[in-house]
Design goal:
Layout: E1 3-5, H1 11-17, E2 22-24, H2 25-30, E3 36-41, H3 47-58, E4 65-71, H4 82-88, E5 89-91, H5 92-95, E6 100-105, H6 121-134, E7 135-141, H7 143-153, E8 158-172, E9 187-196, H8 199-203, E10 208-214, E11 218-224, E12 229-232, H9 242-252, H10 278-293, H11 304-315
Parallel strand pairs: 1-2, 3-4, 3-6, 4-5, 6-7, 7-12
Antiparallel strand pairs: 8-9, 8-10, 10-11, 11-12
């Protein structure tokens, strides 16, 4: 939450340089607060597991957050009961006239396919186009990040020699960015993917910024210069056992997976995994809500579409 301070306090200028959000007495007396509305397009197979992971992190802010879960109508889920989807989820057609403060597009186990070969790609493109004028900030995760970078900026994904699986150290490239407020010099995040994006491709996109990277995992957090699109190539939302469960699944499928790096003590899958990214994960999601969304969306959320369209016209 913003810090309320007395008007003209000398520390205000220093706090502003550090991207600490403050409000003066004058602004506080006029401030209205409403629930933050977040839509989650859940593309993961085990939807209940992903729901729990994301809700834990979205619940870390003192702001009230309302969540709508969305599923694609153009794909039949094999791992989630239809009754669960009908009870707890909406389709895109049901929410396309609404506006949201934030949208999360999750990862999906389809990264080895060309984007256009994914059966729900046209529907996902419709959602991403809709988000330009109906969502203030969209948070893309793993394959969702690659899909967003491809759709919005034409960036390709590239196959890796082996699956990137493990927990890797990261450093901030833009440590004063509001999304990275409070991060340590080194922090950890899980990755689990067969494809990657290349840093040299980012350098040719003037409207994108690399915020965080890893020597082992590459580009990690990227945002658009207007702050409205966030791309996270890893899985900070993963829980302690998620990588272990994925590894056991891959072993059972006889695909010869490598043991996730920097995860099991002594690289022994029989040991309990070390959880070293929880604080970073909570801080990342809190910063997204508290510093990217909350100060920038209008109180009257219904006016968001008009606000964004006017902004688009002035930037053309």
């Amino acid at each position: 939450m913003p810090i309320k301070v007395t008007d003209n306090l000398p520390a205000v200028k220093a706090l502003a340089r550090e991207n600490v959000i403050i409000i003066t007495d004058q602004r506080a007396t006029r401030q209205d607060i409403r629930p933050i509305r977040i839509a989650v397009l859940n593309l993961m197979p085990n939807k209940s597991e992903t729901e729990l992971q994301l809700l834990r992190l979205l619940g870390g802010t003192p702001l009230q957050v309302e969540v709508d879960f969305i599923h694609v109508a153009s794909h039949v889920s094999k791992n989630t009961l239809l009754s669960h989807l009908e009870t707890f989820y909406k389709t895109f057609d049901r929410i396309r006239e609404r506006c949201y403060d934030g949208l999360i597009i999750t990862g999906a186990p389809v990264e080895t396919l060309p984007f256009e070969h994914v059966d729900y790609w046209p529907e996902l493109c419709s959602v991403m186009e809709w988000s330009k004028y109906n969502v203030y900030s969209t948070y893309h995760i793993c394959w969702g990040a690659q899909a967003g970078l491809y759709y919005h900026y034409g960036m390709e994904k590239y196959p890796l020699d082996r699956k990137l699986s493990g927990v890797f150290a990261h450093c901030s490239v833009m440590p004063n960015h509001p999304l990275l407020w409070g991060f340590d010099d080194v922090y950890y995040a899980p990755h689990s993917r067969y494809t990657t994006i290349r840093a040299e491709d980012l350098r040719t996109r003037s409207r994108l910024r690399l915020l965080s990277s890893s020597e082992d995992a590459g580009a990690y957090i990227i945002d658009s210069v207007d702050g409205r699109n966030i791309f996270v190539t890893g899985h900070s939302e993963y829980e302690r056992a998620t990588l272990a469960n994925e590894y056991a699944r891959d072993v059972g499928m006889n695909i010869g997976p490598s043991v996730p790096k920097n995860y099991f003590p002594n690289d022994d899958p029989k040991e309990r995994p070390v959880m070293r990214w929880g604080a970073h994960a909570n801080l990342l999601f809190r910063n997204w809500i508290n510093f990217v969304i909350y100060p920038n969306t209008p109180f009257d959320l219904a006016s968001l579409r008009e606000v964004l369209m006017k902004r688009q016209m002035t930037e053309m």
